[in-house]
Amino acid sequence: GIMIPPQSCLIPQFIILKSFPLAGGNDIWGKGGIGLLNSYAGLIIPFVSGSFGVFLCRQFYLSFPRDLDDAATIDGCSKFMTYIRIYLPLSGSLLSTLTILKFVATWNDFLYPLVITNDVKMYTVQLGLQTFRGVAGVEWNLLMAGTLMTILPIMIVFVFAQKNFVRGIATTGLKG
After folding, report:
1. Which candidate in 10, 67, 95, 173 could, as Cys together with 59 as Cys, close a disulfide (CB 3.0–4.6 Å)?
2. Given this model, what pLDDT does residue 174 score?
3. Which residues of the chain have pLDDT under 50?
4. How far apart are CA 77 and CA 15, in angstroms?
5. Which domains, from first to last, does the chain contain?
6. Whole-prediction pTM value?
């Protein structure tokens, strides 16, 4: 959640992913296997769904005048078609802003992948950087090169989506 620190949600997420039915050797009741732990689905699903995206979208859609919905209803659109034909095309800046924010948060996360994965092949970039710290000390040249390579995708995404990002931040949450 937005008000709850993400670290306090780790244990419930771990339990849910471990007891996920019909995955990772689990039966229909979620017993007997590892569920979605140590899998790509276990790394991706919690970041795709989240309360931050729901809150951001709600605030954005509340800023639209009620007249848009009324006009679409008069023209014979259902609620779903109103969303598809009117609200979704106007949501480009919202969706790009949400995508950028979720990408950066997911890309930079260290603790969640550390708890969910236990196989070196499943490590994310941040966990991979941690492997440069060994018993003999820190391999600074490799760590700094890896850190630079970690920063580059975020910089590239921001440079190409900067206009939409700024527009999305500026318009989300404004009520007219």
Report:
1. 173
2. 47
3. 174-176
4. 43
5. 6-171 (1.10.3720.10)
6. 0.73
Please choose, from the candidates 62, 133, 70, 57, the residue with its C-alpha nearest in 3D space to the C-alpha of residue 97: 57
pLDDT for the residue numbered 12: 86
Q: Cα separation of 57 and 94, whole Å?
A: 7
Task: Report CA dihedral (49, 54, 56, 61) to the nearest 10 degrees.
Answer: 140
Give the pLDDT of residue 74: 93
Helices 40-48 and 10-18 cross at an angle (nearest 10°) of 130
SS (HEC) of the chain: CCCCCHHHHHHHHHHHHHCCCCCCCCCCCCCCCCCCCCCHHHHHHHHHCCHHHHHHHHHHHHCCCHHHHHHHHHCCCCHHHHHHHHHCHHHHHHHHHHHHHHHHHHHHCCHHHHHHCCCHHHCCHHHHHHCCEECCEECHHHHHHHHHHHHHHHHHHHHHHHHHHHHHHHHCCCCC
- With tokens 């490590």, the residue in question is 123
What pLDDT score does 25 carry?
Answer: 76
- Rounded Cα gap, residues 124 and 53, in angstroms: 23
